[in-house]
Structures are given as C-alpha cells and as structure tokens.
Design a protein that fits this description.
Helix content is 31%, strand content 15%. The protein is α/β, with parallel strands linked by helices. The mean pLDDT is 81.
Length: 137
C-alpha cells in the first residue's frame, strides 16, 4: 500500500461540469416533450362545384425555312406582313404564345430580324420550339 504524503496532495480548482450537463439535457428533453406541436395551416376558400372547362392557350407558329421563307401558321408571309402581324399581337392585352421554329439550315440573320421585330412589337410570350433538330450539328 502506497501512502500519500500531504505534500503531494493539492486541491483541484476545476469545476466538475458533468452534473451540470446532465441537468441541462434533462431540462431540454422535458422542454421538447411539453411544447405542443405547432401546425402551420393556411386558410383558403376553395371554389365549390365543378371546375370550368379548361381553355386551351392560343398559340401561333413562326417558321423560318432554309430558303429564308417565313411561315405564319404554315402560310407564307413577307417580313413586312410579319411585322404588322407582330404589332397586332403586341397590342393584345393577353398575348398568345408565339412559337419560333427555325429550321436547322435557316439563316441566322432572318431569325435575328424576326427576334428584333418581336422586341419592337413588345411581344412578351415568345419561345423557341424544335431545338432537338440541332443535336446533329
């Protein structure tokens, strides 16, 4: 048996924090259990009865061929006539969708002119369709 001398023994000045952590964990678990589960609900007044028939959105197609010809809904049109048509579309309060479909071999300057005309006419609903044809280029 080893005897300790009084010179080797010194009191510790550190606080034992283990009981404090245990008490805090117990209090945290009690707090989690006692707090009611809050549900976030949004009150909506939903319409009753049958829904109205769906209205198909109106859209027009502008196609540019490899020869530089412009087609409005499959009918040939000059750039001047197209400009007038786009100006009429731009004045409509609820504009129809315009689908721009240039062929893969179409000249870029014709497509660029059509894009400039749609911007001048303040047409906001324009989209490119048929881009999958460019996968081979």
């Amino acid at each position: 048996m080893v005897a300790f001398r009084s010179q080797d023994w010194t009191p510790k000045s550190d606080i034992n924090t283990t009981p404090l952590v245990d008490v805090m964990l117990v209090l945290l678990i009690m707090f989690i259990i006692t707090v009611p589960i809050q549900t976030h609900a949004v009150k909506l007044d939903l319409p009753q009865g049958r829904p109205p028939a769906a209205i198909a959105p109106m859209h027009n197609t502008i196609e540019v061929t490899a020869a530089g010809q412009v087609l409005w809904n499959a009918s040939p049109m000059t750039l001047t006539d197209l400009s007038r048509q786009l100006a009429a579309v731009g004045e409509i309060s609820e504009q129809p969708e315009l689908h721009l479909r240039p062929q893969a071999e179409a000249r870029y300057d014709v497509v660029d002119e059509i894009l400039a005309m749609t911007k001048r006419a303040q047409v906001t609903r324009l989209g490119f369709v048929g881009n999958e044809q460019y996968a081979r280029f």
